[in-house]
């Protein structure tokens, strides 16, 4: 269910702090930062939640965006997201989580609404705090770790040099996907981007 006039809550999942900035787990923050730049908004600390928030509109007179970077660390992301969804009166169907995804090869993007969390602690926390799973996920493929590397260590490591060559382009495309979800809907976005 969506509210045509209400804002969209776009949550970039990640961990706060400079030491995490380039991690695979922080790709949601990267996309949120890019979207803020596109709508001419700046992140600032929100008074009602442990999060940085930037507000703007998609295009002239377009949908309102509330961009969110939780500052609680990934495992506790849901608390600030639920507080902000309540504060801005955003229905579950207008919450978009942008996150890293181990089960998708690097460079691929997938969109879905609802479903499981696939072991992603940020999504698990969001589902619990929002008391529902029917929010949109923009899944940024980071691929599986090489050899026997622990997946937790893998997502908390920086992108490899060869991956960084494409990273800016992929973050840009992920931001396009978020905008498409908001302006066109999930299914048309899947049709447009899933083959890419």
3D structure, described in words:
By secondary structure, the protein is of the alpha/beta class. Helices cover 35% and strands 20% of the residues. The chain has one domain: 3-Layer(aba) Sandwich (Rossmann fold), CATH 3.40.50.1470. It has a 7-stranded mixed β-sheet, sandwiched between helices. The radius of gyration is 15 Å and the shape is globular. The model has no long low-confidence stretch (mean pLDDT 94). It is found in: Cytoplasm.
The whole-number mean of residue pLDDT values reads: 94
Structural class of the helix and strand makeup? alpha/beta
CATH architecture: 3-Layer(aba) Sandwich
As a percent range, the share of helical residues equals 25-40%
EC number: 3.1.1.29
Subcellular location: Cytoplasm
Keywords: Cytoplasm, Hydrolase, RNA-binding, tRNA-binding
Protein name: Peptidyl-tRNA hydrolase
